[in-house]
Amino acid sequence: MRIVDLFSGAGGLTFGFYYHKENNRFIRNDNCNIIFANEYDRAAAATFRMNFPDINMINQDIKELTEEQVRGLIGEEEVDLIIGGPPCQSYSTIGRRVYDDKAKLYNEYYRMLSIIRPKMFLFENVRGMLSMKDEKGNFVIDNIQNMFANINDELGYTIVYDTIDAVNYGVPQHRERVFIIGIRNDLDIEWDFENLNIEDEQLTLEQAISDLPHINSGEEIHEYGDCLPENDYQRLMRGENENLTAHFLAKYGEKIQTIMNHVIQGEGKDYINGLVDQGILEERYRLTSGYKNTYGRLYADQPCTTITNNMSTPSGLRCIHYEQNRALTPREGARIQSFPDWFQFTGNKREIKTQIGNAVPPLLALKFAEQLEEILG
Questions:
Q1: Residue 36 is inside which H or E element, if any?
Q2: DSSP code at position 125
Q3: CATH fold of the domain at 2-200+361-376
Q4: In the chain, which stretches have pLDDT less than 50?
């Protein structure tokens, strides 16, 4: 397949097409040729280049990609597939939703379809996109369906979409995202989300990260030490990797550390305030802001909740380690997203966490790649 990768981020969706899984190892997929990728964010583009050095990464605003430039990048041969979805922050139901320039980037996707004319496309975004409206009160998903169905007199795409939870596809977290499949209307191709290969069992958080070394406030650890992989998922994630990266924690203050020391699995803000009410904790530890699962400790024997760019912030949504009194490290977040340990992230600590939190889980991407490769050859 000849593929164009838009809004690529660090490369989570890319990973599923660049590799396939064989004998519990990631092997290069020679049937997928990613012609070029485009990403606006400098740090994410640098991470992409580090991990996919043979893919032509165009690090610039998609609005500045000219038709001449794109045609020069793809050449004369037909493109089979465009993958990627615009940034999701504007559509997210967490925080302030606004129909801003980022929310309108599906117009650039439309423009790329009109130039590249791929056989199919795969578009991913947060579930909140389905309820998002434009300034006229029209649902964004309806805009996409109507616009993409009739790009010009000759070209249009039939669209099907569904909400997919990554936990059903080998990823150890609940992560619901909308996936849109577009099929060029001159092709006799059908897509059925039910054909994606669902895994028999869901992985728990403990199964995903229990082999990563113990870490304390303010530390950064680069070696596994005596920690050995305990199951097939951990062995897949390690591969032949020897040196850990992105396994670091911020330095916690006394109040935050005390709160983490006392919260139990499945509990958070309300539990801590209950301890204050009972006199077990002093009044100064009362939590007066945030959501119900602020300072929430994760369950060991359940899949993780959705990984976000606040995975290492105890005062964010549930992200406290099920056993140790700390938040998750970025490497643990990457594990939970199904990035292997040898996948490296570049940038400052905030940028690294953002790249991980925004990514499509590679193992979920791999499921889509398998099905699309079967259809497109």
A1: strand 33-38
A2: E
A3: Rossmann fold (3.40.50)
A4: 90-93, 97
